[in-house]
Amino acid sequence: MDKARIDALAAKPVPPQGLFIAGRWEDGAERMQVTSPIDGRVLTSIADASEADVDRAVKAARAAFARGQWSRAAPAERKRVMHRIADAIEVQALELAVLGVRDNGTEISMALKAEPGSAAGTFRYYAEAIDKVPGEIAPTAPGTLGLVHREPVGVVGAIVPWNFPLMIGAWKIAPALAAGNSVVLKPSELASLSLLKLAGICAECGLPDGVLNVVTGHGAVAGQALGMHMDVDVLVFTGSGGVGRRLLEYSARSNLKRVYLELGGKSPNVVFADAPDLAQAAKVSAAGIFRNSGQVCVAGSRLLVERKVHEEFVELMAGAAEAMRVGNPLDPATQAGAIASEAQLARVKGFVESAAQEGARLVTGGQRVLSETGGSYFAPTIFDGVAPGHRLAREEVFGPVLAVTPFDSEEEAVQLANGTEYGLAAAVWTGNLSRAHRMVAAIDAGVVHVNTYGGADSTVPLGGHKQSGNGHDKSLHALDKYVNLKTAWIQL
Q1: What is the model's pLDDT at position 446?
Q2: Burial environment of residue 459 by CB neighbours within 10 A (0 to 12, 13 to 18, 19 or more)
Q3: Is there a common fold for 3-263 and 268-456?
Q4: Which of 232, 387, 460, 473 has the most C-beta neighbours closer than 10 Å?
């Protein structure tokens, strides 16, 4: 990785950013400062959109959809434009990654792959899918023809979080565009810069005006306006359960728009004594909770470990945690970057305090670090002896804090794994193939890893069970959110 190039990009001033509506940059009703979690300094400012700003963006999206320049374009034409977007993301990958790191604090070594790398791959995947997902001919009686058409829904509202804005934004934008829709994107106010740059890239690559619009600002205003808008057909969201519930309420109070939610997780990482390599399992498990300072929706935040290897494995995990380099996320050697904001850092500290009060044993970490930098950093933290009823075992921290609970049997492991309101992801470490299949079947989660943690690509869906949400990002299944099925019943 070119450290000199990273440093040069990191030194570039970031000009004030506007809203992207109907192919033009506009000022919003108000402005808000962007503070970098790397050093606590003001990086730039972004527009703080009003309800009227959001309304203009939705109208622009609807007008673009009605014109049909994109919605009725031949699949091959949409495919060409989306491949150009993927190419441009790859060319500007380092610039996009550095900009995003300055905004949200993800370590550059992870950001480069997870943000522009993933986004380019996502656009390319759905570009190729455009002309490979046909409609259907129903098996009707002779003399009747039943056709099932797949049509774009119209205007898609997308609200994405601050932890991986470019990656998750692409998960929403690319399949929606592939299906022929127009999009109004609302990034998190804590991480908007890379998605604003993406909007410019899309326009330069030939995406027609109004097909992608980006409105920045506070969720309580811009997000609510998007959720309540009567002309948004589908709303997709990744974030907290509380906000997800409000979006469902907005749908009920407005036009009953379809709402798809990828919400929180409290994902169990289950380690059996017969795991093929405990040292490797500990290394991968540590990355699964501590990379990006634990700010990952599928983070393995609950470690369930068989009692006969419990002490050994906790010691391995502690060693891996203490060896992780926490620091400036723009340094390629950093393994865990910054917490995205001071508010999120305070939330992490609150969980550490409550875990100690409830009687869990602090193994390592538990404190803010590098405060002299002015940035928001927290040490990788492990608590052992976390009971199922403890707050740390039940609620999502979204920070580098691991809860460890021992178990004695496969049945108890399943009970503990399923003992939360969430069902987003999980992992099982075992050398027993039959046990692996039993655990995959028994754990109530949208993704179950076996002898690994993370890394699933665009070929498979990501979606939650229980209160982790509904619908799916990634894979061909993601397209289902962005199409209407229309039956043609024809008497021959």
Answers
A1: 98
A2: exposed
A3: no
A4: 232
Contact 165, 187 (CB under 8 A): yes
Tell me the catalytic residues: 262, 297
Q: Letter for the amino acid at 42?
A: V
How many CB atoms are located within 10 Å of the residue 460 CB?
A: 12
Tens-digit pLDDT profile for residues 360-399: 999 999 999 999 999 999 999 999 999 999 999 999 999 9
Tens-place pLDDT, residues 261-315: 999 999 999 999 999 999 999 999 999 999 999 999 999 999 999 999 999 999 9
Backbone torsions φ then ψ of 296, nearest 5 degrees: -135, 130
The set of residues, in sequence order, having a beta carbon less than 8 Å from that of 182 and lying 6+ positions away, is 61, 62, 64, 65, 70, 71, 154, 155, 156, 210, 211, 212, 213
Joined tokens for residue 19? 């809203």
Residue 176 has pLDDT above 90, yes or no: yes
Task: Enumerate the β-bridge partners of residue 462.
Answer: 473
204 by Cβ neighbours in 10 Å (0-12 / 13-18 / 19+) ranks as: exposed
Closest by CA position to 176, among listed 460, 469, 473: 473
> Taking the C-alpha atoms of 119, 106, 395 and 440 in order, what is their torsion angle to the nearest 10 degrees?
50
CATH of domain 3-263: 3.40.605.10
Q: Tell me how far CA of residue 379 lies from CA of 294, 312, 315, in angstroms.
A: 11, 21, 17
Torsion, CA 235, CA 240, CA 245, CA 247, rounded to 10: -30
CA angle 289, 292, 295 (to 5 degrees): 70
Find, among 125, 99, 109, the residue nearest to 200 by Cα: 99
Confidence of residue 28 (pLDDT cuts 50, 70, 90): confident
| Number of residues assigned to the chain | 492
The domain over range 268-456 is classified in CATH as 3.40.50.880:
no
Beta bridge partners of 369: 377
Both tokens assigned to 149: 């058409």
CB burial string 24-50: b at 16+ within 10 A, e below: eeeebeebbebbbbbeeeebbbbbbbb
Beta carbons of 276 and 451 less than 8 angstroms apart:
yes
